[in-house]
């Protein structure tokens, strides 16, 4: 649910980025939001883990929000605004990396406490974002024709 909510918020964040920064090739708001969410969530996730006695409480979804924001950090905000399909593709890519945890993502879960809960989703978002960059350009090119 956290990744879905963050994907919905991505559209207004892209609109805000265009209004604040004009013609930009990536969205610094997503990068800043991912970093703030990552570090801001650590104490709360640690507390939730301690209070519930679990390694990764299922109701904690802030890690997914961080991952989705990272996924869209390299995407031109105009592409999100002109081709909302990019949001669905980014969401799908992030969920792929979040669920399957390929390319060493699963190793990040071994970090202590909340660092592990947050870091695997951040890395999944980085991988999804690296794929989203060329995919979003392709989406924009297809939409032009």
Layout of helices and strands:
Elements: H1 2-21, H2 28-52, H3 62-71, H4 77-82, H5 85-100, H6 105-108, H7 114-144
Explained architecture:
By secondary structure, the protein is an all-alpha fold. The protein has one domain (2-144). The protein has helices at residues 2-21, 28-52, 62-71, 77-82, 85-100, 105-108, 114-144. The longest helix is centred in the last third of the chain and has 31 residues, at 114-144. The protein starts with a helix and ends with a helix. 39% of the residues are buried.
Characteristic terms for this protein:
145 residues; 7 helices; mainly alpha; 0% strand
Silhouette: elongated
Portion of residues in beta strands equals under 5%
Count of helix runs: 7
Helix-and-strand structural type? mainly alpha
Distance between the termini: 34 Å
Largest sheet: none
The number of distinct structural domains comes to: 1
Unreliable spans: none
- Percentage of residues in helical conformation: over 70%
Mean pLDDT: 93
What's this, in brief?
The protein is mainly alpha-helical. Helices cover 77% and strands 0% of the residues.
């Amino acid at each position: 649910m956290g990744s879905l909510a963050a994907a919905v918020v991505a559209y207004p964040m892209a609109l805000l980025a265009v209004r604040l920064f004009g013609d930009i090739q990536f969205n610094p708001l997503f990068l800043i939001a991912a970093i703030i969410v990552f570090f801001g969530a650590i104490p709360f996730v640690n507390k939730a883990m301690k209070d519930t006695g679990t390694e990764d409480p299922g109701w904690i979804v802030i890690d997914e929000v961080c991952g989705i924001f990272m996924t869209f950090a390299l995407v031109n905000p105009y592409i999100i605004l002109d081709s909302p399909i990019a949001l669905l593709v980014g969401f799908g890519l992030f969920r792929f990396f979040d669920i399957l945890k390929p390319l060493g993502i699963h190793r990040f879960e071994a970090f202590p406490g909340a660092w592990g809960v947050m870091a695997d989703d951040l890395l999944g978002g980085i991988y999804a974002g690296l794929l989203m960059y060329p995919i979003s350009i392709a989406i924009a090119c297809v939409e032009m024709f």
